[in-house]
Design brief:
The protein is about 50% helix and about 5% strand. The chain is globular, with a radius of gyration of 22 Å. Strands 1-3 form a two-stranded antiparallel ribbon. A two-stranded antiparallel ribbon has the order 2-6. It has a two-stranded antiparallel ribbon with strand order 4-5. It is built from 20 helices and six strands. The longest helix is centred in the N-terminal third of the chain and has 26 residues. It is mainly α and about 475 residues long. A hairpin with a 2-residue loop joins β4 and β5. The N and C termini lie close together (about 5 Å).
Amino acid sequence: MKKHIKSSFLYLMQPKTHFITIPVLLLIITLLTAAASCDSFTEVPLPSSQLTAPDVFEDKGTANAAMVDIYSKIRDRGLLTGYSPGLSCQLGLYADELDYYGLSGTAASNFYSNTLLASDPEITKMWTASYSQIYAANAVAEGAAKSAGLSAIDKEQLTGEALFVRALLHFYLTSCFGAVPYITSTDYRQNTSVQRLAAPEVYDRIKADLEQAVTLLPEQYIGEGRVRPNKWAAQAMLARVCLYMGQWDEASNAASAVLNQTELYQWPTGLDDVFGKDSLSAIWQLMPATDGANTYEGGTFIFILGPPPSVAITENLMNAFSNDDLRKSHWIRTVSNSGSTWYHAYKYKQKFNTGISAEYSVVLRLAEQYLIRAEARAHAGDLIGAKEDLNKTRNLAGLGNTDALTADEIIAAVMQERRLEFFTEFGHRFFDLKRTEKLNEVLSPLKPQWSATDRLLPIPESELLLNTNLLPQNAGY
């Protein structure tokens, strides 16, 4: 076997893990410490004394605090964090977007060289953080359902948010690991013996959760900003899932439902408007932890002097941009030193605290919906509509209309556009190569240790040791 597994960690669903055996206790601790961990992110009053289990969801303020704290956890750790262990960096290294300049023997080094181990602590953290967040979302859904103090509207909102989070995280888990458990309860006895479901079944469950979330979530955003998902955030995620499932008409219709909300969403006037805090093309964002802080992505990707301390944009990606593509000058920055030149992602401009936060992490945005609909329309035979959608992102980047004519040419042009539009954003490039079965064709010539089995990450060894129902390990590990 190419990758040997050797160590052990506590299994997330094991009864002795306090988060699983006493779920409400975790929520209480979360609420009591949220002010320190989330600061301005919560924007809701927190209890000053200990709560009994039912009290958490009998008060709108504490119930909202429990839900909002999940977003802070998503921002700070796991698959979607903008820190270097998140997918934006790790899958950029794993594919062909980023070169690595840091220390050898690290998780980032192993992602870059495609030599991951099932015993790698960062793989375990990805898995356990995601399932912890899913578990917390399930606790919110269950607590809201049992509450006698929340209004029907508040119950629907919290349940819709919980289902959105559960679907979102399972989407990224199955995209990375393939067959995974789909966790829908807080019953640790059930969760200690869960089995992995094949990716198509996981997608079916994701789709069902999102469809229900669409019916429960309000059309308008809750509170300030776009940091709590609304109906259209769930619809946007549903469009992506349907695209990945090859359900072209449903993907197109879901994307259209979002794009038709022209009073809420507006196409940016320039590339520098896309990632600002107040971007009207943002569908869902993650708010920084404190006032004045900005995104973790800015801290991860921006460097001032060369050589890069950690990661930099690959020459391969730089060469994919035409010279008249404005994304090359607006979303990538050049750093030179002693005759050498490097490039870093510059979608987010702020690396440090700015007194007043200027940027939020954008998880879902309008450009993806246009490119989802373009791809889906091309597959369904609507070539004129597909080209119109494709040209939206091209024109914003200063490029002329596409000259693609046939369905295959348009789809290829869409995939190229997605590469240039979504680099260093939550693994889009890797997932696109995988779903179009282009991984080996593209990565084998570029990456000496690339193997066809690297299309999936390893299931953490610790999980397999503590729950044999999760066997077999993914091939190659």
